[in-house]
Design a protein that fits this description.
Blueprint: E1 2-6, E2 8-9, H1 20-24, E3 28-29, H2 32-44, E4 49-53, E5 61-62, E6 65-66, H3 67-75, E7 82-85, H4 95-100, E8 109-111, H5 119-125, H6 131-144, E9 149-156, H7 163-176, E10 180-185, H8 203-226, E11 232-240, E12 246-249, E13 255-258, E14 268-272, E15 275-279, E16 284-288
Parallel strand pairs: 1-4, 4-7, 8-9, 9-10, 13-16
Antiparallel strand pairs: 2-3, 5-6, 11-12, 11-14, 12-13, 15-16
Helix pairs in contact: 7-8
The structure holds iron/sulfur cluster.
Iron/sulfur cluster is lined by residues 11, 13-15, 18, 20-21, 55-56, 89.
């Protein structure tokens, strides 16, 4: 059902905690015609969801074709499919990027790495955006698409992270209302700048902070998903459960279960959401139809 298409590799940002640029090299983009041909073939053999992947896909650029131009070309390909972007870094997007999401083929979901809600920590991390830029970007989207799903990565316990800086992260995360947060405890990587920084945080404190983010993330996930009750979704069925029910994801990347039914795998179904359920059998907090 889902086909991952790599559009670039490498990164030249050198965030202070990350070893990727040293091991994967500088950012290199794949030729756009090659990507388009690959995607068209994938659609032609029946894949319904195309996921664009890479190390830093927002920096895609090949022969004058930028990331936004590439997406525009992809969503105009013929066929019944949808496009999802994998993790992106919050940088360099214009209004054109926001408007691209008016096309129903482009899923209203972005996994946009925040890493910290503290300006000072972001600077120590050598990230390339400020909190206000990040917020401005989110606001633009939420104004145009109120239900847009923003998910993110947050690193807790970065060297020198004070209680006050950590609280800033909690505040910003709450303000944004993420649909999901991947929390990582900072871990040292030999050969990075952060590994040599003073103020390494004890594991116990990292675990406590991680738990606090997780608790907040769970609360936000529930309130975000509740908004879909009574609304329509386009479910792509990925599998049928032995215990009954067809399972898959809607365009907002929320798991959906169609209870008591069997539906052919790799089929789109337009559904209306009945309820939010905590389904332990299938290990999902999802939407029931
Ligand atoms: Fe590049 Fe991402 Fe690593 Fe930063 S965290 S250096 S943007 S790959």
């Amino acid at each position: 059902t889902r086909s991952a298409i790599k559009i670039q590799d490498g990164c030249d940002n050198f965030c202070s905690y990350c070893i990727v640029p040293s091991v994967r090299g500088e950012a290199v983009s794949r030729p756009d015609h090659d990507i388009i041909e690959n995607i068209q073939k994938s659609i032609d053999i029946g894949n319904k969801e195309i996921v664009l992947t890479g190390v830093n896909i927002s920096r895609y650029e090949y022969g004058g074709t930028k990331f936004e131009d590439l997406i525009e070309k992809i969503v105009h390909l013929p066929g019944d499919f949808r496009v999802r972007l994998s993790s992106i870094e919050p940088e360099g997007f214009t209004n054109k990027f926001v408007r691209l999401f008016e096309n129903p083929k482009l899923c209203p979901h972005l996994h946009m790495c925040l890493q910290s809600g503290s300006e000072a920590v972001l600077q120590r991390m050598r990230r390339f955006y400020s909190i206000s830029q990040y917020m401005e970007f989110i606001e633009q989207f939420k104004k145009a698409f109120p239900l847009f799903n923003f998910t993110t990565d947050i690193i807790v316990g970065f060297p020198g992270e004070t209680d006050a800086e950590f609280k800033e992260t909690l505040t910003i995360a709450k303000q944004i209302g993420f649909g999901h947060i991947h929390t990582f405890k900072y871990s040292r990587r030999s050969g990075t700048k952060a590994d040599m920084m003073d103020g390494q945080i004890p594991e116990k404190l990292k675990s406590e902070r991680s738990e606090m983010i997780r608790t907040l993330a769970d609360e936000m996930k529930i309130s975000y998903r509740r908004q879909f009750i009574g609304k329509g979704q386009r479910l792509l069925v990925e599998r049928n459960s032995k215990k009954g029910g067809a399972l898959g994801y809607g365009e907002y990347y929320i798991p959906i279960i169609l209870k008591g039914c069997t539906v052919d795998r790799n089929t789109f179904v337009n559904v209306t959401i009945n309820d939010l359920i905590n389904d332990k059998e299938h290990n999902l907090l999802g939407l029931e139809i």
